[in-house]
Design goal:
The chain contains no helices and 8 strands. By secondary structure, the chain is mainly β. The chain has a single domain, classed as Immunoglobulins (Immunoglobulin-like, Sandwich), CATH 2.60.40.10. Strands 3, 4, 6, 7 and 8 form a 5-stranded antiparallel sheet that branches. The chain has a 3-stranded antiparallel sheet with strand order 1-2-5, with no helix packed on it. The protein starts with 12 loop residues before the first strand and ends in a 7-residue tail after the last strand.
Length: 100
């Protein structure tokens, strides 16, 4: 008996960021195609990688908190099914809400 595992074949797109308050940003994206069970949002500062798992496949945003002012973070979003799908293109954000 064979077991088949699925992964999304497309990446989340149109990543944007909003700065609602101190030490936080809201990351939003366009959802991917079928086969998505949720999303992993990763934000990297230097060599430190933090992740947030969004287990609702219909949710397309997450609030990242306790960020450090004046520090840039590289943010990616990845859909997952049984297996992870491809990563989005990264965006670099700071607490001023600037994209690079």
């Amino acid at each position: 008996m064979s077991t088949y595992y699925s992964a999304p074949s497309t990446t989340p797109t149109n990543l944007t960021v909003d700065t609602p308050g101190d030490n936080a940003v809201i990351v939003e994206w366009s959802t991917t195609a079928e086969g998505v069970s949720g999303y992993t949002v990763s934000y990297v500062r230097g060599e430190v990688i933090n992740t947030v798992v969004v287990s609702d496949p219909l949710k397309n945003n997450v609030r990242l908190t306790e960020l450090t002012a004046g520090v840039e973070y590289s943010v990616t979003v990845q859909g997952f099914g049984d297996l992870p799908g491809p990563l989005s293109d990264p965006i670099t954000v700071n607490l001023a809400g600037k994209l690079y």
